Amino acid sequence: MIYFLDTANLEQIKYCNEFYPISGVTTNPTIISKENTDFWKLVKGIRAVIGDDKLLMVQTVQTEASKIIEEAKLLKAELGYNFVVKIPMCEEGLKATMALKALGIRVLITTIFTPPQALIAANAGASYVAPYVNRIDNIIGDGCEVAAQIVDQFEHYNLDCKVLAASFKNAEQVHKCASVACHSVTVTADILKMLISHPMTDAAVNGFEKDWKSVYGEKTILDF
Ligand code: E4P
């Protein structure tokens, strides 16, 4: 399973890109609005931080297929080869996805809440679907189970579409998605940190430091 960072905050992107093995950055209109700054400056800033080799995903804000296509073409022209346009699940979005597939522009269909939505998105030519794990949990569903069913269906029907599970609020949800072989997840910087943190790990690391210093003081391997 690979990890994307779900933010448009440049400081967090710089930090996580340096310390975590992220494969790219995902955004949506809410995430972009939080930064409250010039759109192009922001998304091109994200591209500059992550470089040309990582995936950048930006969502369209249009609601009509021909306009979605126009916006997707512009985003792709400005943001480079490793770009995926996010389109919300709706009829106009499916129509745009079929056209964009023919143009060679990769699409992620977002706001997925059910396996049938995902199956239709994949048949329309989407390269990714994004089930909203926590929002499904919030309505007494099981977000990870929905993601698992989508993974199974794509495998069963041999569909060339990947699951990018999204909308996480805790590390357990991410772990459960990994257990059901989700191809990818997009998470916040806080959740990335939760995923690597454990008090027993801290205790073990502190023990190594204490034992070393009790014999060698401040010397390091470089001093021998
Ligand atoms: C990601 O691409 C999604 O848009 C995002 O994870 C949604 O998260 P939220 O449910 O916290 O808004």
Would you give an account of this structure?
By secondary structure, the chain is an alpha/beta fold. The chain is 54% helix and 17% strand. An eight-stranded parallel β-barrel has the order 1-2-3-4-5-6-7-8, surrounded by eight helices. Strand 1, helix 1 and strand 2 form a beta-alpha-beta unit. It is globular. It starts with a strand and ends in an 8-residue tail after the last helix. It binds erythose-4-phosphate. Erythose-4-phosphate (E4P) binds next to helix 7.
List key phrases describing it.
eight-stranded parallel barrel, binds erythose-4-phosphate, alpha/beta, globular, 224 residues
The distinct ligands, each listed once, are: erythose-4-phosphate
**Largest beta-sheet details:** 8 strands, parallel, barrel
Shape: globular
**Using only CA atoms, what is the Rg?**
20 Å
Mean pLDDT: 98
Distance between the termini: 40 Å
List the total number of helices: 11
Low-confidence stretches: none
Work out the strand percent. 15-25%
Helix proportion of residues, in percent? 40-55%
Spatial sequence of strands, sheet with the most strands: 1-2-3-4-5-6-7-8
Class based on secondary structure composition and strand pairing: alpha/beta
Query: How many strands?
Result: 8
N-to-C series of helices and strands: EHEHHEHEHEHEHHEHEHH
